[in-house]
Amino acid sequence: MSNPIRKRLADLLDHDLFMPRELSWLSFNARVLQEAADESVPVIERLRYLGIFSNNSDEFFRVRVAEVRRLISVSSPEQKQQFKDLLLAIQKRVVELQKEFDRIYKEVIRSLAEQRIYLINEQQLDDRQAAFVKAYFTSTVLPELEPILLREGQSIPALNDESIYLAVEILSGVFRHAAVVGVPTDRLKRFVQIPRRKGTKGTVFIVLDNIMRTCLPQMFRGVFPIDSAQAYCFKFSRDAELAIDTGITQSLIDKMALGLKKRRKADTVRMVYDGKMPQRLLDQLCSQFGFGKYDSLIAGGRYHNSKDFMDFPNFGPRYLEFKPQPGIRIKRLDERVSIFDSVRDKDIFLYYPYHPFDYAIDLLKTAALDPQVTKIKICLYRVARDSRVIDALVNAVQNGKKVLAVVELAARFDEQANINWAQRLTENGIDVIFGIPGLKVHSKLLLIERKDGNALRYYSHIGTGNFNEKTARQYTDFSLITYDQTIGKDIYDVFEFLQYNYQRPNYRLLLVAPHTARSGLLELIEAEIANARAGYRASMTLKCNNLVDKELVLKLYEASQSGVEIRIIVRGMCSLLPGLKDISENIRAISIVDRYLEHTRAYVFYNRGKPRHLIGSADLMTRNLDYRVEVLCPVLDQDAQRIIQDTLDQQWHDNVRARILDKQQLNLRVRSKKNAVQIRSQESIHHYLATGKLPRYPKSRMNQPARRRRKQVP
After folding, report:
1. Which terminus of the chain faces fewer neighbouring Cβ atoms within 10 Å, N or C?
2. Residue 683 CB-half CA count within 13 A
3. What contacts 100, CB < 8 A, 6 or more positions away?
4. C-alpha–C-alpha distance, residues 404 and 379, integer Å
5. Which fold is adopted by the domain 3-12+512-691?
6. How many Cα neighbours within 13 Å face the side chain of 619?
7. 191-195, 390-394, 420-424, 561-565 — which is least confidently predicted?
8. pTM for this predicted structure
9. What is the predicted pLDDT for the residue at 213?
10. Average pLDDT for residues 628-652, to the nearest whole number?
């Protein structure tokens, strides 16, 4: 970094140069809430967006807020105050979003009713419906309930922070009793369909918590006389950090299982509760659960754990949901006898969910059966509940192949599932390793070793998403399947490092964290800076989930000041502030929230008219670049490069679902010019991949020849 620029940035480091990532994350969740508020979105999808918002909020407190609380306890006095101020800012923004959530929820419920889908409460039941609810409670709900009476000085078992509870206040003569009972949504459906009123049409639902409210006296039958009982919903979040003791002589699986047990008793960081809960009952809960001064107490509406809305069923017309997008088949893959023949001829580039995940499954199944295949190596981070990937690996062993699976036990919130998968894989003869202590293995790699004639050859898969059939239908991700032997040798070296991590490999093409990813990205940015200063056009497009690494942000600021044009498409957290005078005036950033979760990581550098395209697992975060095993792979096939460029260009010109990222965090939609074609990128990309036709937008300069500008940038 040149001295004038370094000094200029140093002068600003104490000012508004970086957006706190926690506030940026809340801004992302506000974009999700915007989709729920948008009346052009089908109403069932609006309700599901509310579920996504709620699920995101839970994870935010369990991870982000919990981390800030831990930092307060270990920081210097000056830093401690900064983190306290950050917690206050988080609390303020969360309360604002919760109020907006409650407003949108009421609006969506009214819109559902207009479509004759009714979500009613216990006070709206007629006699026939009430009889059905009471019978359902007796036969199905009551056997699942275990109420806990709250008594002063008496501790209660640790409650599950993934569940919702009813705080019940009971009047019995002159005595007042309090109890807590879990709503068993892990075993019973949250939304129960009940009979509609006679003479009416439509579908009627009641939530499980309201069924319990209807039958409170029956729940406490025989304990004491009940004059009246009221129930108020609440939930809380615990610190999700796993403390794994590296000093214990114990298998990693046993350590992880012990850590999961400790998580269930970890510190609470938030309680969300029905705002109508009496203060005396709220005080009793806070005392019982030991909430402290750094915990977030958030008053909300009557219902919580709205993440269940993500699975709300549609009993109305199909137009109440997004119109299905059929999977786009690839002719040359469907017509060839073997996928290996296709890969040898030409790289395969897939873009989920537009292309079906079946092609990845076909690659694994073919490898499991092919007598020329000798070994399969794969990194597993998150897999589907009923995983055909796992089935194919087991089948490969049964057919005499050697299979190595790197299973990341520390995949947050999937730890127990991955423990179970690791045990199943081991039981079926698969070599299972757990990577390297202190480095989470986040790479999306598959390596197939196959005899082609007398030579051993590599068939490689590098992706931006997990080997997961479910998320491949919900997340956008790139996958590259290649016969390039140099890439294959690099991936072989990655697996060697994961197995025998006593030496650092020399990679040829791949950028691998924590070895070369950071330095490689910085070199690519530095090359654009050098080109700009030499008077050449210089630009880059960065597409990722999160951009928060300060060293990279500072380097991008330097690039902007040097005249490099920078386009950033980031889904979630973005600490970089575009458009700052004399700092980031050449940087623009957008975020897209639509029917699919934008999950691709792609980095394109102009490189004097010979663009370099990279895809992979790494976001632009310190944890990804320094504390994980991540892989970024150059895409060398020209057709694949074209797909990457065309899809990024369509996203950049999205004027329907794209929002502008800026210092104010207003999430304003991108404004389209007068008479401009409306581009909703997730729809236009599907059309493009199916037909090859692009919408009309300003042509990208990424593939144009380099030219020298008249005025050089110093």
Report:
1. C
2. 12
3. 33, 37
4. 9
5. Endonuclease; Chain A (3.30.870)
6. 22
7. 420-424
8. 0.89
9. 94
10. 97
Using only the alpha carbons of the chain, give its radius of gyration.
28
**DSSP code of 465?**
S
Both tokens of 601, joined, read: 């990581």
Which one is catalytic: 442, 515, 613, 653? 442
Going across the sheet that includes 117-120, the strands are 117-120, 203-207, 191-194
What does the domain layout of the chain look like in residue ranges? 3-12+512-691, 43-320, 331-503
Among the listed residues 375, 350, 553, the one whose alpha carbon sits nearest the alpha carbon of residue 457: 375
Question: Three-state DSSP class for 511?
Answer: strand
State both tokens at 241: 């950090």
Active site residue 613: no
441/437 Cα distance (integer angstroms): 10
What is the DSSP secondary-structure string of 206-230? EEHHHHHHHTHHHHTTTTS--SEEE
Beta strands 402-407 and 373-380 are: parallel
pLDDT, tens only, 234-268: 888 776 564 444 443 445 555 545 544 444 444 66
Q: Enter the CATH code of domain 43-320.
A: 3.30.1840.10
Architecture in CATH for domain 331-503: 2-Layer Sandwich (3.30)
Please give the structure tokens belonging to residue 28. Answer: 């992302």
Residue 263: how many other CB atoms lie within 10 Å: 18
Task: Supply 273's token pair.
Answer: 């509760």
- For residue 480, pLDDT beyond 70: yes
Tell me the three state secondary structure of residue 536. strand
- Sequence-distant (≥ 6) Cβ neighbours of residue 286 within 8 angstroms: 271, 297
**3-class DSSP assignment, residue 382:** coil
Asked if the peptide bond before residue 514 counts as cis, ω within 30 degrees of 0, the response is: yes
